[in-house]
Design a protein that fits this description.
The chain is mostly helical. 77% of the residues lie in helices and 0% in strands. The chain contains 2 helices and no strands. α1 runs antiparallel to α2. The radius of gyration is 16 Å and the shape is elongated. This is Spore coat protein.
């Protein structure tokens, strides 16, 4: 396994930020929707985006052990 590049780290950070925003937006929607069927779908989307976020975090943590400790020239 190779260390992630700076561009890949930026992509991971952006993706995690996007997933976090989607979690929050879906949670707000689920809290305001009164139709039980739609609420169930939106709640499932919260879970799905939380799973995506955790997968990205896990990938980041797995690469942390091989990441360089100083900036590379």
């Amino acid at each position: 396994m190779q260390a992630l590049t700076a561009k890949e780290l930026e992509y991971l950070a952006d993706s995690m930020s996007n997933e976090d925003l989607l979690i929050k937006q879906c949670a707000v929607a689920a809290a305001t929707i009164t139709n039980p069927s739609v609420k169930q779908v939106i709640t499932g989307m919260v879970d799905m985006h939380a799973q995506h976020y955790n997968q990205l975090l896990s990938a980041l943590q797995q690469h942390q052990s091989i990441a360089p400790t100083a900036p590379q020239a």
